[in-house]
Every structure is written in structure tokens, then in C-alpha cells.
Write a structure and sequence with these properties.
Chain A: Keywords: Signal, Transport. The complex is a heterodimer of chains A (about 425) and B (about 350). Chain A has 17 helices and 15 strands. By secondary structure, chain A is an alpha/beta fold. In chain A, strands 1, 2, 3, 4, 7 and 15 form a 6-stranded mixed beta sheet that branches. The N terminus of chain A is likely disordered. Chain B has a domain of about 200 residues: Orthogonal Bundle (MetI-like fold). Helices cover about 70% and strands about 0% of the residues of chain B. Chain B contains 14 helices and 2 strands, in the order αααββααααααααααα. In chain B, strands 1-2 form a two-stranded antiparallel sheet. In chain B, a hairpin with a 2-residue loop joins β1 and β2. The chains are: A alpha/beta (about 425), B mainly alpha (about 350). At the A-B interface, α1, α3, α10 and α16 of A face α3, β1, α7, α9 and α11 of B.
Chain lengths: ~425, ~350
Amino acid sequence: MRRGIGATALIAGLALAATACGGDDGGGGEGSDGEISGTVTYWDTSNDAEKGTYKKIAEDFEKKHPKVDVKYVHVNFGDANAKFKNAAGGNSGAPDVMRTEVAWVADFANLGYLAPLDGTAALDGADDFLKAPVGSTKFEGKTYAVPQVTDTLGLFYNKKLLKEAGVEVPKTFDELKSAARKIKKDTGATGLYLRGDDPYWFLPYLYGEGGDLLDVKSKKVTVDDGPGAKALAVMKDLVDSGAASSDANNGQENGLKAFKDGDAAMIVDGPWDIAGALEGKQFKDKGNLGVAPVPGGSAGQAAPQGGWNLSVYAGSKNLDASYEFAKYMSSAAVQERTAKEISLLPTRASVYEKPSVKENEMVQFFKPAVDKAHQRPWIPETNSLFEPVRVQMNAVLFGGTKPEDAAGKIGDEFRKLLKDYK
Amino acid sequence: MAVDTGRSAETAADGEHHSGRGRRGTAKNGNPPGRRRALTGQLGRQLSRHWYAWAMITPVVLVIGLIIGYPLGRGVFLSLTDADESNVARTIGVNEIPATYDFVGLENYTEILSDSVFWDRLGWTALWTVGCVSVTFLLGLSLANMLNRQVKGRSFYRIAMIVPWGIPAFVSVFAWKMLFNEKYGILNEVLDGGGIDAVPWLSDPTWAKVAVIAVNVWLGVPFMIVAMLGALQAIPDELYEAADMDGASPWQRFTNITLPGVRAVSSTVILLSTIWTFNMFPVIYLLTQGGPGDNTEILVTYAYRLSFVNSPRDFATSAAWGVLILVLLSLFTLIYRRALRKQGEVW
């Protein structure tokens, strides 16, 4: 019963505007011989299965540029946004380069924290980038990030369990529901592990019913138009009917564990968990892991576009080296390496032509899915749209709130966040 | 910390509002209260006699003013503006961006108070506080009573009880989160072994409320035990011996000696733990994130969401929430104090 971090957090929040301490970045820049030097601090937000690879890749930069000292720092995805904002706003301790979630770029750029990259070394070979990932790097006509990894959601399935139950890979959530019943009867495993704790997983259901969160062009909130409630009802039905199991929190660990152990035959997940899933005892034989498009709803099939960009802090003391580092981390060679080693999806068209990437089954599956992935609204508030969705999705699945009421509440919250939206 | 109940009864009885401490003070200085003219002289004498002490505490007063007064004042000021992350002054590298937020008066407060979000959260926060404090206090008092006797392995129990207090709160909460895990947690595995269906500890609104209260009680009981043990040990044994001679039953001894004996300490620790529990951020935030839905969200976790989760961070509204929380707690303290004084407690 001590004073919690709540008090500290509050005071920090209140005093944040007032604090402005000096940084301690190593100076540097371009020497007379054109050789870059200095320290580049890099915040990596990759997950546990990926971070080892990224650390090695980042440190390899020093081999190409011996005068540059790369400081690799791993930051948990969940903390990274707040940590960067605290550091960047206070002008103390922000990294020179950060692996930034696609939805954060517009937010950080809007606050003036990111350096525009047009015309710098970072935007090397920009024509090669796929069109969809580039969408998230622009804000008000300027480019603030370079795409490094792209992703979307797919349906991971346990081939052996589906075969045992004699069911096809489901193409719609209806098919999934009936398949789940057979799977349970014949194998004892639950059909699907449904993420009920993370709002990102609400999007395939929403898009599947023909809905969207917002219409940015006409400045309208659309999540409460009808498809929103329908999507929540579909999720609730999957859980209530026993076709899917879910948790109000712990979804990431419990879902992956259930899938790895064969307790759940299917899970909706992204390429970032391929490496993790393959560590499981069910997938000692890699061939047992199947990946298919996310099932569709009544209006079609679509999954959200996600991924990671590299952004450069506007206050970096070492901009030249930082641009060079961003260029390196998004280069074709590095993307080929991450595709090969941890099955992540490149953002450069040319990398998909490389033999090692062509041979990678996971990458080859996800490529068409990514091409079709549903773009999200790339506005500064995109990241905060998720919290109201999480609260209501949770309330529908675990608290008995009606889907229509929940969709209405999400819409109300959105209008509070977006003052000029209808 | 023995309580001389006789003295407090006397204070209440003589009907005057000066406290016991004041009376002691005036008695020492030999100045009867109420004589205004003597006051400046008294102050001067105080200063000339104690100037050294005043000089010694000046740095402390300054530092406290700076680290408490400044943020507090700043918070109150921000709550009257429309400041958020995108319009406060900030420095990014060489760029200085000046502040562009405006003074909006009480707008933030009227908006918060006319919204059901605040009242819903307040209702649960009150329930959470009362639930946690009452259970913690009752458990603490009974355990302290047990440990106050000559039981075998007493010091071991005492140390074991302190353990939760020694672990950082977030570590304890994460450990509990693992125990409560619906699919793979130990609690459900044990229940499963006993043939009982898995309990959705953190997924069901009612169970989640039980779970957060249980964890907070677990964290709070050690403090309660330590405080109550101290209070119990200050009760003179002679009282119990005398009661024994008079043939009092254990229950009579408890209600007539123990309870009055621990009263002063209890009232203080109850006040403290009420304030702590009201603002207990980590238990709720780390265990359930306020979920499922927003069923376990208390006022401070919502204020945190406003200034750290939403984008751009809304400093003004969050500060207004902070000020409202402060006002609520100050009001509670005042009322509580007054109630105690009516019962003749010197505090």
C-alpha cells in the first residue's frame, strides 16, 4: 500500500510541459572526407523472437561505417509510444532513429518530433517501395518515415488438426463456426483462439461486414453505422457458441501458447508471430503450420494494414548518420535478411524477386494478403482510436453489453477525440 | 501509542475548540489563549529563541514548496486551459515551439461533471476504496491480534507477513496476473484439479472486481498488521490482568480494552489507506487495464488514459481530473476528521 506510480505519472503529466533538460547525444556529423561519424541511438520495438536478429543487423552498420557508434536499445512495443513522446517532448533522451509503428508516424510528425526525409539519404530508392506501406509515411505532403516491414493479419492453422477433423480451411466466419464444432468433437481442440483484448483484431470483422472506423475524406465517424455492431455480434457469437475461446487480457501469450500446444486449431495472427509459432511442439515439423487469408464476413474479406517504419528524431544531434542508418535499415539487403531469418515481409518490390525470399512459403503467402490489406486512416489520432474499441469489444465479449450500444459508445468516444468529425 | 481516553473525553466535554496539543503548548508558554496583543510578542520571542531551528528547516520548506507546490500550482493552472501535447511549449533539437494554448476558465470542469463517465468511475472508485480498506483493516487487525500472542514461530509469521510489502508493487501485480490467468493460471489449474470449472478471473466483470480488490488487500495487509501490532503492544498488560480478575470474557476484553486501545492508530491508518487505495494506480492498470470493458477503471486510471494513452495527450482535462480527485480526498479528510472529533478523538 505505497504510493503508486499513478501519482508519479500524474505529476509527470502535469509537469511535462515545464521540463526541458539538455540531452547528451554524442556529437558528430560529416567530416571533411565525407565519412559520417558519431553515435546513432536506435530504438528497436521488435518482439522477443525478432530482437536478436535486429540487434545483429543494427550493429553490422558499424562495419560499413567504422566511425559511427550504433547504440542498440530494445524498447517494448507497448511502452515505446509513451517513452518516445516523453523523451521527444522534453528534448532529452530521445533516440536518433526509431522503429515506429505505422499508426504513430502521423502523430509524431504532427507534434513536430520527426525530421522530414524528402531529399535526404534516408529515402534511397523510394520508387522501389510498395504503394501500400508508403501511405503511412506521409503527413501533410511530406515524408516522415521509410517503410521497413509491412504486415497484415492472416489465419494461422494447424494442418494436422484440421485434417483429423476432416474440415477445409474456413473462408468465412460462418464456415469457421461449423468447422470449430467438428474440430472440438474429433480432436478436443478449440476451433479458434479469438483475440478479445486487442482492438487491432476487431478490424477484420469490421471490414468483413463492409464497415470502417472513419471516413477521413468526408470527416465522418463510421464505426457506429451498422457494420460495427454487426462485427461485434459476429465476434460475440463465435465466443458464446464455443467456436472460439478468448481472454479479456493476456491474449498475446495465451493465444500463441494455445496454438503452439495444439489447444486451439486456428488463430488470427501476423507474420511477426511466425517465428514464435514455429518454436512450438506442434510445429516441430514446419510443414504443419498453414497460413490462409483471414475469413470474411457478410460483405467480403479484408485485414488491416500494419507494419513498421523507420523515423528520424528531428532533434537528433547527428542527422546525417541517422539518415544513413535509416537508409541501411530499410535497404533491400536488410529486408532480404529479415525475410529469410524471421519471415518478415519486405516493403521493397525488388526484394520479393530474390530467390531466398521467393522460396519462403510464409512470405509468399502473405504477399498477396498485404497487397490487398485495408489501409487505415493515417491521421495523428489513429493510435488513440484503439482504446475505445478495446474497452467496448471487451465489454461485449465479457460484460454483456449489447453490440449496438457498444458500437454507439465507440462512435461517441471517437467524436470526443476528433473534434471536427461528424 | 497508548491512548488516554480520559483526556479526550475531557476535551470534548469542555466544549472548547482548541485541541489538546494547543492546550499543552499554551500551558508551556504560560500565555493564556485569546490575548491578541501578546501574539506578536510571542512570535518575536519564538523567533529569537528558535531562529536557528527556522534557519535549519528553510531549505526543506523551499524544496517541498518546489516539488509539491510548483506541480500542484501548475496542475491547477493547466486544468483551466485547453493545453494538450500539440499546443504546449516544447523544444525539439534546435526548434523552439512556443505555447499556443488558451485560458478557458472552468470549461473542463463543467464538461467532466456533466459527463456520466466521471460519475460511473466515481461510484466504482468509492466501492473499491471502501471494499479494500474495510477488508484490509479487518484482516490486519485480526492477524495482528494473533501475532500479538505468544504463538509458536511468531517471528517467522511476522516476517512472512511483511514479505508482500518488500516486493515492488508491479512485480506482485504481474505475479498475480499470472496466477489469475484464465487458461494457464495456477488458480484455475488447482480448481480444475478439484473438479471445479475454470473461473474467468479477469474476464468477468464481477470476478475482475473481486480479483483487483483481493490483490490490493494482499498488498495492503502487511502495513495494517505492522501498524496494528504497534498499537496492540502499547496497551498495558495490567488492563487485561484486571479484566481477567473481574472475570471478563475474551470478547468483552476485546471490545472494552483492545478496541478503544487501538482506536487512535486505527483512525489514522484508515484515513491513510483510504487515500492510498483511492489513488491505487498500479493494481488496476497492470492487472486488468481497467477491463473487462471499463468495469474496474478508477478515477486515476482514467486520468492517466487522458494524458498518456490518447493522442494528442490531453493535459488540461487530465489535470482537471487530478484536481477533482484532490478536492474529493480533501473533502473526505475534512469530514472524517470532524467525525472523529465529534467522537472525542484528539487528532
